Amino acid sequence: MKNLRAVYIIWYRDMLRLWHDKIRLVGAIALPLLFLVVFGIGLTSKMGALGPGVNFTQFMFPGIIGMTVLMSSFMSGVSVVWDREFGFLKEVLVAPINRTSVAVGKTLGAATVAMIQGTIVLLFAPLTGVSLSPGTVLMLLPLMFLLAFSMGAFGVLLATRIKTMEAFQAVMPMLTFPMIFLSGVFFPLEGIPSWMSILTKINPATYGIITIRQIALGTTSGTTFGLNLFGHTMSLWNNVGVLATFGVVMILLAMQSFSRQE
What we know:
Elements: H1 2-19, H2 22-47, H3 56-75, H4 78-85, H5 88-93, H6 99-122, H7 125-128, H8 134-161, H9 165-181, H10 194-202, H11 204-217, E1 228-229, E2 232-233, H12 236-259
Antiparallel strand pairs: 1-2
Helix pairs in contact: 1-6, 2-3, 2-6, 3-6, 3-8, 3-11, 4-8, 6-8, 6-12, 8-11, 8-12, 11-12
């Protein structure tokens, strides 16, 4: 019970920080919308239809939702580095609680913040021509949370090994931007060069982006905007399984890393 309360307090602290930092929320939403407007409106007429009744803006919109969730959850690891530099993390680590609770609380906080931001972007669906029924939204939310939790655990794991804010700010863009561009946010994964195809398949974000897109656009069969792995067309549940496995591995490693913190 004590450890569960510790998870809640750490999670709640991240919620308070988000509530009192409105500029952070606005900035996190403005960048994805900028991508959507510049690339979507600017290139839709040039790209043509990318699927049955799907133009480039509609294709890109689910990817932008995934990108928002990915960036926000992954970058939330910066709070771990921040807390270390200002001494708060040391106080938490010497508290009479299991250190794994800290990793879980931080990851849940990162995932919840990312979910809030992704849900706000989701509200812009009518402007892109994407029609989302209440049932579709209810299916999207747990998928967004799974992506947020997996990437949040990855970010927290890296943050436990990075000692300064400067180093974190240098490393994170080197990881987030390749993951975004190689996950199919801005282009279909069919017909790309073989070397790039390999990179997309080892990119964990790919499986989250594809799943969100298939649900949002109603192509859950896995044949449209899908991914072939070893000659097998990945189904929606295959993609969920890969992403969930990655998330479990990352949170276990993050918990282990926190237990070794000094």
